[in-house]
Amino acid sequence: MLFYVFLYMRKSTILKILFLIIILVTSCENCPTSSEDLLENTIFFNTKPLNTEMSKIYSISTGSTNLKHRGDGLVYSAPSKDFNLAILETNENSIKELYLKNIKNGKKTLLLRESATIKIQKPVISPQSDYISYQGDEKQLFIFPFNEQISYLISSSFLANSIPSFSPNGEYLAFFEKHSEFTSTKLKVIKSNSSVEEVFSYLLNYELPSYSSNYHLNWSADSKIVIFSSEIHSELHTINLCDVIEKKVTSIPIDFVGVINPAISNNNEYFTFTGKNGNIYLYDYKDENSIPEVLVEKKFINEFCDNPLFSKDNNVILYSRYGNSEMLDFSANLEIVDIKSREISLLMNNIQYAFWNLYSK
C-alpha cells in the first residue's frame, strides 16, 4: 500500500528542499518498536494509506525524516508521560476494541471490547496513564481507571460532537454537556480520581460557534485554565478562559474574524485559533493594541484550516488543512508553520487528528 509524505527540510536558514517520500506500508502489528526517547516537537497522527480502509498511527519529528509506524487504529489524544497510547481498533468481526499500547516496549493490552451494552468512541488517555475517558452511546461519557478495570458513567448529557480533555497534570477532566437543543451548553470539570467530584462548572451565556466537526477543549500548560470560544453573534466571538482553581471566567472579545477551537501557548503569551473564514490566526492577547493576525491563509475559497496547537517550545504550530468546510475524516493535510518565519511545511496527507508529544527527552 502506498501513501505520500511531503517534507520541507532545512538545508540552511533560507533554503528549503522539498522531498517526496513514497513509503511502502505493511500491516505489521509486531514490527519492532524503538526504545529511544521521543524528540521534542514530535507529532502523532492518524492517517489512511491509499487503497485501504485501515487507519494507521504514525509519529514524525518536525526537523527530520523520523517517520515511525506506531500501530493500527485511531488515537484521539497524545501519548502519556509513560509513552502509552489509547488506541481504538476494529477487529476482523467489525467489533471495536480499546487497547493500551506502550510505544517504547511495544506492549499492547486489551482494555475493553464493544458489545450490545458497551459502546466505545473517541477515547482519550490521561497524561499520567491512570485513566481513559471515552464516549459510549451518543450522550454517555465514561472514565476508566486502570487500577480498577471498570468504567464509571460520569455524564448522560455529554455533547456528542466534542472530545473530552484531561489537564496536563492529569488531575482534571473537562468536557461539555448539553441536555437538549433547547438548553444551554455547560462546561464541566471533574477530578480524574473521582467520577462524582465536580471542581468547576460553567453554563454558557452564549453558545459554541457554528462548526461541522468535533469541538476541542484545550488547557493551559499549568493545568489551571480551560479554553474554549463562544459566538455572541456572527461578528463577535469570545475566547473564554475558565480558571478551575480560582473558579472564575474571563472572556476576551474578538471582533469580525470568529474563533473556533482556540489554544494557548505554553508560556501563556499567545492564542491561536481557526477563524470562521478557515484561516489560522495568532493573537498576542496581553498587548492591548494587538489584533488577531493571519498566520496561515487558506489557498482556495473552500479550504478550511483547523485545530491549531502550539509546540512545547512555542515556536511551531501544527494544524489540519481540509479541502472544504465539511471536514470529512481523513481528508486533511497535516501542516506546520514556523511562527517567526511564517514558513509552512506540509508533512502528511489523508490525516484525521494530530497531536504534539508533550514529554520529550
Any overview of this molecule?
This protein is mostly beta strands. 0% of the residues lie in helices and 49% in strands. It has no helices and 30 strands. The strands form eight sheets. The chain has a seven-stranded antiparallel β-sheet with strand order 5-4-3-30-29-28-27, with no helix packed on it. Strands 9-10-11-12 form a four-stranded antiparallel β-sheet, with no helix packed on it. It has a four-stranded antiparallel β-sheet with strand order 14-15-16-17, with no helix packed on it. β14 and β15 form a beta hairpin. The protein is globular. The N terminus is likely disordered.
Summarize the structure.
By secondary structure, the protein is mainly β.
The arrangement of helices and strands along the chain is EEEEEEEEEEEEEEEEEEEEEEEEEEEEEE
The percent range for helix content is under 10%
Tell me the total number of β-strands: 30
Tell me the β content. over 45%
Rg, Cα atoms, Å = 20 Å
For the largest beta-sheet, the strand count, sense and barrel status come to: 7 strands, antiparallel
Mean pLDDT: 88
- Poorly predicted runs are 1-34
Derived from helix and strand composition plus strand pairing, the structural class reads mainly beta
Largest sheet: spatial strand order? 5-4-3-30-29-28-27
The end-to-end span amounts to 33 Å
